[in-house]
Fold this sequence. Notes:
- By secondary structure, the protein is an all-alpha fold.
- The protein has a domain at 173-284.
- The chain is 66% helix and 0% strand.
- The two termini are 53 Å apart.
Amino acid sequence: MYDRRVVRGNTYAQRIIPTVTQSDRVELQRQHEASRRNIGRKRAREQLGSTTPEPLLGRQHVDVQTERYLEELSDVIEVKDTVCQTDEFLDRPPSPLFIPAKCGEDVGTQIEDGDLFDFDREVRPVVEVLVGKTVEQSLVEVMEEEELACMKAQQRAFQELRNIELMEVQRLQEAERRRKEEKERRIAQQREALRRERETAEKVAARALGQKFVANAMLTVFTSLRNQGFFYDPVENDVRTNFLPWLMSEVDDRLLKKEAARRVLDGLIYEVATKREEAFRERQT
């Protein structure tokens, strides 16, 4: 127990006033409690902080130097030697006069009952401080729990949004694959139909030519050859040699243009999705 009104030791010596008062002690206690709360809050953030999402397929996380300047670490300690010159020895001071020590009591202090400590009056501020600190610490802990719950909810929402975007990208890739397979199948069917039509036309012409040859004999054969031009129809020959190649080239050009347009559209969709994901990550950080 300490009371400034009680003088301890001799009463004739110089009294030293303590440098730390009661208000200074309360302020130091408040600073100590604030530092403890900051340390606890920092540890909670480190333990329950948001983690970095997993990298996409085919990518990986890499540690990057983000400081502006590199700091070179070295175990060599810089030392410097200095010297000083001491002053010359001074003469010995004269011996002080001998003064005999006092004996007995010169001054007394009378203390009545209740002068040193009143429990009801002294304990009230202590109880108020304890109750206030307890309530404040409870409020801080509740706010930390709510903040952690909000961070977890945001992380779950981000994960769900990312899964939805991945599913959309996979759907677009699957649709593009189906369109490509359908195009190849249609081209193969068209080529097969043209080949069958050409074979059918050739068979019909050969059958008609054989029937005419059998029916009209030699004169009819020469006349038919002269009129038709060496056993083929000029229109059919023109269609086969000129029109069909031109038609196939035009079909190929149109299909190539449609495929290039689909690739450009897929690239734009992928770029927009990537930018939205980056913007969402920047808002989260």
